[in-house]
Amino acid sequence: MTAQLPAAELDRRYSEENAPPSTWPQVTAALDGAEVFWLSTVRADGRPHVTPLIAVRVDDRMHFCTGPDEQKARNLAESSACALTTGSNALGSGLDVVIEGRAVRISDPESLTGIADAYRAKYGSDWSFDVTDGRFVNTAGGPATVFRVEPSTVLAFAKGEYAQTRWRF
Q1: For the whole model, what pTM was predicted?
Q2: Shortest CA distance to 27 belongs to which of 160, 164, 146?
Q3: With CB atoms 3.0 to 4.6 Å apart as the test, which of 9, 30, 55, 106 could cross-link to 37 if both were Cys?
Q4: Domain ranges of the chain
Q5: Which residues are CB-neighbours of 42 under 8 A, at least 6 positions away?
Q6: CATH number of 2-168: 3.40.50.720, 2.30.110.10, 3.40.50.360, 1.10.760.10?
Q7: DSSP states of 39-101 as a string?
């Protein structure tokens, strides 16, 4: 996301008077350090679906995987609109990050291999995937479809000094 990174916009309506905007390095550090993310998708009937999952940042884009028959995969087959969020549940400290955009399926072996390596590096051997037929395969969980989140908007909510920063893509 850095190659085409727009300027940060601090929304003063939701920020303390002297609060500085969050920086992109703060956002990427939060994404790289987070273990759990929440993916929001839209069901065929328009209802939201929110579920926790793990995700990795590769080539400055967030990636996640899901079983092909899971609800989130079925939702994304109908609408690629999604939001990926992470942060702290503490009220007075931390940085919450929301990436709004669309999920794009990744199936080329070279990209999948790099993403599988990132999962193993971040989450350990329990999250070790082989690449077969354009998907991840894990003996414990079966096949998984891999997606990249293409951002339209990234929001950072700094707590403590309370600042809302936005990047629009």
Answers
A1: 0.94
A2: 164
A3: 55
A4: 2-168
A5: 48, 49, 75, 78, 79, 81
A6: 2.30.110.10
A7: EEEE-TTS-EEEEEE--EEETTEEEEEE-TTSHHHHHHHH--EEEEEE--S-SSSEEEEEEEE
